[in-house]
Specification:
Elements lengths: L33 H26 L8 H30 L4 H18 L2 H24 L2 H4 L3 H16 L3 H9 L3 H30 L5 H12 L4 H10 L14 H12 L4
Helix pairs in contact: 1-2, 1-3, 1-4, 1-8, 2-7, 4-6, 4-8, 4-10, 6-11
Length: about 280
């Protein structure tokens, strides 16, 4: 049987947020930077179809899960992912009204995932999901453990991304534990991550560039320099959190080995209020 974490998983709470995106939100809502705003728009556009894929991939194996606690966590996972789909669809329509082409991204991702499902076995789809869930938990940790980006967002936008990040960390080990229970193929797990990180990086970069080109901000060199520094510079969020991503390739890896309980608790208090 696969790796078991010695730490307790986060409690999974399904929250109904109903964010309202008002006219006071600035055009470049991510650190007043058009590049970061375009990048996060591309990510948001990918989430509705992606979240549905995650749900379907895990649910496919529900009849093979006989542990009551894991079944309970799967239900929490499904509830959170469904809420993410709803809120990102609302956010994407807000972005479309601002001329950010989120619908274009949604349609491209939907078509791409349909091809993946057509060409993959259920076990491979679950391995894809485990890899992508680690990537989203990694990005969530990068946001919460390096809070400068959130602090430079409009309060509603900051709460929106913090909420999503918190819940990605809360359910980060669910798909992994299902995979270990019903598939437990280490070679497939690591191989799918390598494939996933390549396609995830290339496709999200391409979608970001499409958005920037359509918006006429692709040649903003100072914005590119600032975005690179915030993500990949010496104190950049991605660079500082990169060891967490690489840990996935260890044979003894488990998502809950990474202790960020205090940071998640702080983010809940700061951004979620009564919904925490």
């Amino acid at each position: 049987m696969g790796t078991i974490s010695t730490r307790e998983p986060h409690q999974i709470k399904v929250r109904r947020m109903d964010f309202e995106f008002g006219e006071d939100i600035p055009e470049n809502w991510a650190a007043d930077n058009p590049i970061l705003t375009g990048l996060l728009t591309a990510l948001s556009g990918s989430f509705p179809a992606g979240e549905r894929f995650f749900i379907d991939s895990v649910r496919h194996f529900m009849d093979r899960i006989d542990e009551p606690e894991l079944r309970r966590r799967v239900r929490g996972f499904v509830g959170q992912e469904a809420a993410h789909t709803k809120e990102h669809l609302a956010f994407n329509r807000f972005l479309d009204e601002r001329g950010f082409f989120a619908k274009m991204v949604e349609e491209r991702v939907e078509a791409g995932i349909a091809k993946v499902k057509e060409m993959s076995t259920p076990e491979e789809c679950l391995a894809h999901t485990v890899a992508l869930e680690h990537l989203t938990a990694f990005l969530a940790s990068a946001i919460l453990e390096n809070p400068d980006m959130l602090e430079r967002m409009h309060p509603t936008i900051a709460a929106f991304w913090a909420w999503h990040a918190i819940e990605e960390i809360e359910h980060r080990s669910v798909a992994f534990d299902v995979y270990k229970k019903v598939v437990d193929d280490e070679k497939l797990r690591r191989r799918m991550m390598t494939r996933t990180i390549i396609f995830f990086s290339v496709l999200n970069a391409y979608r970001t560039l499409l958005i920037l080109k359509k918006r006429g901000t692709i040649a903003d060199l100072p914005a590119w320099a600032e975005a690179y520094s915030m993500l990949f510079g010496k104190k950049g969020a991605i660079r500082r959190t990169w060891p967490l991503f690489k840990a996935y390739y260890r044979r003894d890896f488990h998502p809950d080995q990474h202790d960020n309980d205090a940071i998640v608790a702080e983010a809940k208090e700061k951004y979620l209020g009564a919904a925490a």
